[in-house]
Design a protein that fits this description.
Strand content: 15-25%
Distance between the termini: 29 Å
Oligomer: single chain
Number of strands: 7
Helix content: 25-40%
Strand order of the largest sheet: 1-2-3-4-5
Shape: globular
């Protein structure tokens, strides 16, 4: 599954050029007002900024599956990292999704165990994801299914029997992500001159 943020053209191009035997699911990672959601089996991109309920409905209108990525990763737009009524938001999200990303190769600290417990508590299937942002991260973690599928409904039926193959992104990737966010935050607060931040950050 290829799930770029707010676009599906790359996934569509990959699906069109995939060799025989390689199935590419066209998907999208969408920044909702309540944290990120994943849509699989999409024909059209879904705009960011909608509520989670509106986004889930838009995914289902296309016959797609709704996924909850990295729900407890505090470094990203995740339901469990939102300030205030995080618990209420997550409980609401659980009723909207078909699966939970219970192992994310880029997740930090206890984000994956919390996601696993959340999925189990709500009776939702879990998946593993490399969350690859570079070629070297492809397949770091994966989800193995017990049989073939070609539609969203067939995949939904297989997900409860999925086997997660865990993996971790490289040390550099795990170190750089929070560092980059800190640099951007300091730039926004005027604590670092933009040109200085660009010089210091690779």
């Amino acid at each position: 599954a290829i799930t770029d943020h707010e676009r599906i053209d790359g996934a569509q191009a990959a699906a069109a050029s995939a060799p025989p035997g390689l199935q590419v699911i066209v998907g999208e990672e969408i920044r909702t007002a309540d944290g990120d959601l994943l849509g699989l089996f999409l024909q059209q991109a879904i705009p960011p900024g909608l509520s989670a309920a509106e986004t889930a409905a838009a995914i289902r209108e296309q016959g797609g599956l709704v996924g909850l990525p990295h729900p407890f990763d505090s470094y990203r737009s995740s339901g469990g990292s939102q300030a205030g009524s995080a618990d209420q938001k997550l409980e609401a999200l659980a009723a909207m999704v078909d699966y939970v990303e219970t192992h994310n190769a880029r997740a930090y600290r206890d984000a994956n165990p919390l996601a696993g417990a959340f999925a189990e508590r709500h009776g939702l299937p879990g998946v593993g994801s490399s969350d690859a942002h570079s070629v070297t991260e492809l397949g770091v973690a994966s989800t193995v299914l017990p049989g073939p599928f070609s539609t969203a409904e067939e995949l939904r039926a297989l997900l409860p029997q999925a086997e997660i193959v865990p993996g971790r992104a490289s040390y550099y990737v795990r170190l750089w992500t929070p560092l980059a966010k800190l640099v951007n935050r300091l730039k926004g607060n005027g604590r670092i001159r933009p040109e200085a931040a660009d010089e210091e950050a690779p």
